[in-house]
Specification:
Elements (H helix, E strand, L loop, with lengths): L6 H10 L12 E2 L4 H9 L5 E6 L5 H9 L2 E6 L5 H7 L6 E5 L7 H8 L4 E7 L5 H10 L4 E9 H7 L10 H9 E9 L4 E2 L6 E8 L10 H13 L5 H6 L6 H10 L13 H15 L2
Parallel strand pairs: 2-3, 2-5, 3-4, 5-6
Antiparallel strand pairs: 1-8, 6-9, 7-9
Helix pairs in contact: 2-3, 6-8, 9-12, 11-12
Length: 288
């Protein structure tokens, strides 16, 4: 098999199959030969693992994962890539390609059918436009995953891996931190792809928590509060939360004060523990 990051081979392969890049699907194929082996090494640390890949491109990362893992299930939406993948991945018998939209796929069923008894991780070069929806689906579904190793836009990586309570943090930061421990692994320049995107990327890893580090009385209420608080992040906590809750501003202010917080505080200033304490106070007020 010829090197899948060789630009001349890629062009020859794509032309032979009349393939055209889709802007709507955010397709950018990696041509930097060092990136995918590094991603695969971080994701797969033992050979008896199963991997879900999201978006295959021409199979550069898929191949590296298959060399390290027991089984790879790659979910690819673009039907026009199927004949290309049948050629580039022909040497592997531990890869299954599923032609489906990952946001509609039954990932729990896929894990049960393909990875019996294996530790499972996710590894992917995510299209920028579905980064947050995919990550939140993976985490909120509470799938039995060890880690999620993904390449995303560098700005998104900084936000996802930010410390809760810092200026870079947002609602998605809080959600990610609730379900996992996030870290940025390495940067990837825009010149590493064809066609070249307008921004640089970064590879991040989310180590999925077995249990959250905070105790909540109502998980749904917590995430409602977080969404409301960060939805109008320039406003103080009482003002931002009141717009998303069926509670008076006075009740919310009292909950803020009884949580030991200043009513002039903004969402980005609060730690994970402070957000949890506030959510639990709001729960008490609501159910009093």
């Amino acid at each position: 098999m010829r090197e899948l990051t060789n630009i001349n081979y890629i062009k020859e392969l794509l032309n032979k199959n009349n393939f055209r890049f889709s802007k709507s699907l955010g397709q950018n194929f990696l041509v930097n030969p060092s990136v995918c082996p590094r991603m695969a090494d971080y994701a797969v640390w033992e050979d008896n693992m199963g991997v879900i890949e999201i978006g295959t491109g021409i199979g550069v990362l898929t191949k590296e994962l298959a060399l390290r893992a027991k089984k790879v299930v790659a979910i690819e939406l673009d039907m026009s890539l199927m004949p290309i993948l049948s050629e580039t991945l022909a040497d592997f018998d531990n890869i299954t390609i599923i032609n489906e939209d990952v946001l509609k796929a039954d990932l729990e069923k896929i894990i049960k059918e393909h990875f019996d008894g294996m530790k499972v991780c996710v590894c992917a070069n995510l299209p920028y436009y579905i980064t947050s929806p995919v990550i939140m689906k993976l985490l909120e579904s509470k799938l039995p995953l060890e880690n999620i190793t993904v390449m995303v836009q560098r700005e998104a990586a900084d936000r996802l891996c930010a410390e809760v309570g810092s200026r870079n943090s947002g609602a998605v930061t809080v959600c990610v931190d609730y379900y996992s421990e996030a870290q940025k692994l390495f940067d990837v320049s825009k010149g590493s792809f064809i066609p070249s995107p307008k921004v640089d990327s970064a590879v991040i890893q989310l180590q999925v928590r077995k249990e959250p580090e905070i105790e909540l009385k109502d998980e749904k209420l917590f995430f409602r509060m977080v969404k409301a608080a960060f939805g109008q992040r320039r406003k103080t906590i009482p003002n931002s939360i009141s717009s998303g809750f069926s509670m008076s501003k006075e009740e919310i202010t009292n909950a803020v004060v009884s949580s030991g917080l200043k009513p002039t505080a903004r969402a980005e200033e609060l730690s994970m523990e402070e957000l949890a304490e506030l959510a639990n106070k709001l729960y008490e007020v609501k159910n009093a």
